[in-house]
């Protein structure tokens, strides 16, 4: 395995990081906007239902984009192959999202209004093409897609959300995603020209991808279950505080994902991967870059101390945010090892590690959250990332 052409990798990483900043800074701006209009408890409920429907939508991906990674290069050169997988994904998403909607309608009388309005997020994710944009390295397209989507959502919330109708926040966020997705899909010729595969072929594909579907469910829970679980165990107030920490964690994981897709094109031959000298040199560069990002993040948090203290009076939010920055190291340094496992299609290993990570997260939230409150929740978010790094590192060495 080689980490070749570090300059090109850096350029891809830089552009993807800019994409990630847009996906996080706009939601952070939205959070600040909301905290001036609604209570922390209401923000906790907004975030909780948002994460619930993001989890359901994530499950509808049925293993995408993991199953695209081993032949990412072929997708870039074969529009026919890309179209075939896009059509399969659309069919599978449609069936699963329809099932979730029917289930939602069955229990509609027992659910709060915020849940019903938030359900539009499912429809918004039906045509969301970001999984393919990442794998195809269409980074400029991603940049503009996220910019317009997040800007539109922020504008909708700014103009239409008040303390009296806060429960429709997720509806406007979903509507922004729908309105932006359609023009991008038309431009990329992925919408309205779908040739659906025969049901029999899709079922054969589904059966062959069951392991990746289970992996998709577990990974979706890892990324989205924290806030709903915190609200369930500790209430909406704590969930509201934890939402800020979740945004910080999402930024760090997103930067790690950027590194993943920036390095991915350099892995051409999955059969000759190993911890070579080039791999170690690459890890040194990643370690150095991670240290720089960690210092920048800490510096930014400290520089905004006054604003943070003002917005969260009586809550040591700045110290929570400083502690959460520790996960920069395990999240970033595990990236090359995860690529190796996925390029070799070691899905059983990846699935096992994901289950361990999810178990550590949920047990940690329950135990440490009960013992130490929000401090314990912060530690519970950090712990599974450390475990994940050690697991992948040892797996690749073997």
Radius of gyration: 21 Å
pLDDT < 50 stretches: 269-276
What is the overall silhouette? globular
The termini sit apart by 15 Å
Order of helices and strands: HHHHHHHHHHHHHHHHHHHH
Sketch the major β-sheet.
none
Give me the number of helical elements.
20
Category from helices, strands and their pairing: mainly alpha
Domain module count? 1
Calculate the mean pLDDT score and round it: 79
Oligomer: single chain
Beta-strand content bin: under 5%
The percent range for helix content is: over 70%
- Tell me the number of strands: 0
Q: What does the model show?
A:
Helix 2 packs across helix 12, helix 13 (236-263) crosses helix 18 (335-343) and helix 18 (335-343) packs across helix 20. The protein has one domain (6-397). Helices cover 79% and strands 0% of the residues. It is mainly α and 398 residues long. It is built from 20 helices and no strands.
